[in-house]
Amino acid sequence: MSAPDPQWANAWSSTVSRTEPRLTHTHATVVSRNVRVSKLDAELLDGELTQMLREPVSNALSLVRPGLAETYRLEIDTVIRAVLFWLSVGSHRRATYAQGLQNLQYARTSGFARRVHLFGILSIGGPYAWARMVGSMSLAGWADAPHTSIRALVWRLVQRIERITKVAALLNFAAFLALGQYPSIVERILGLRLVHARPQILHSVSFEFLNRQLVWHAFTEFVMFAMPLVNPMKARAWIVRNVRSVLRLPIRVDQSVKELPEDVCAVCFVEARKDDTHVVNP
């Protein structure tokens, strides 16, 4: 076989060098779009986990002093989120518990440990510090300060920053829905990307849990509707009678009651044996 023409070989090499980056970029974009649902599910699951852990802590604090849990609810949520973050992402797992369930993890890049620590501080400590600062300023009456005072200027600046942050979060979420890369602004700033932990496992949206919830909800609604229409005593007697007939169990009847004349009340006879003063009515 003769050697290929050098002109054809050069043309093939140049074509591959031009198309390969495009193919790689397209593949990455498709993968990121496929994991959008997984990222949103992981965020919701992490929130539900925080709520589940908050309930026993609140119940324990209510035994110490009523209303203590509501007073320090922000601190409780912050501590729970910090502990969960430290035990999951901060312990070299590169994913929260919910992200692990969704087959997701943060892509390891240069300076990953430092960026993860900054992510935990900004995403957990940042909202707590901001909420406490705004709450303290509101309680101190900064919103009602004179218009030209330093307090009023700082309060208006805080309100403007809060509005800008909300608009930026909305724009970031729209970009996430379009590209599927960064669910939060902090992740976009730090460049933390969520990728498949095991790319060979294809993710499919499972509605099994939702179906179970719908079936259970419909069943409970039907039971709540039917309960007032059912007589519990008659239902119990019907169940006992049918179970005895199926199992062929003998019906226990007092022999003395069985031999009573037809004109004697069996209930009165049983009560009379318990109480000697009771009169048996014919």
Write the layout of secondary structure elements.
Elements: H1 6-34, H2 36-64, H3 68-71, H4 73-87, H5 97-101, E1 104-106, H6 112-139, H7 150-179, H8 185-190, E2 194-196, H9 208-226, H10 232-247, H11 255-258, H12 266-274
Antiparallel strand pairs: 1-2
What labels describe this entry?
282 residues; disordered C terminus; mainly alpha
Report on this model:
With 282 residues, this protein is an all-alpha fold. It has twelve helices and two strands. It has helices at 6-34, 36-64, 68-71, 73-87, 97-101, 112-139, 150-179, 185-190, 208-226, 232-247, 255-258, 266-274, and strands at 104-106, 194-196. The protein has a two-stranded antiparallel ribbon. Helix 2 packs across helix 4 and helix 4 (73-87) packs antiparallel against helix 6. The longest helix has 30 residues, at 150-179. It is elongated and about 115 Å long.
Low-confidence stretches: 23-32, 277-281
* Arithmetic mean pLDDT: 78
SSE string, helices as H and strands as E = HHHHHEHHHEHHHH
Main sheet properties: 2 strands, antiparallel
The helix content, as a percent range, equals: 55-70%
The separation of the N and C termini measures 121 Å
Number of helices: 12
Instruction: Give the neighbour order of strands across the main sheet.
Output: 1-2
Principal-axis shape: elongated
Question: Structural class given helices, strands, pairing?
Answer: mainly alpha
Quaternary class: single chain
Radius of gyration: 35 Å
- The total count of strands amounts to 2
What percentage of the residues does DSSP assign to strands (E)?
under 5%
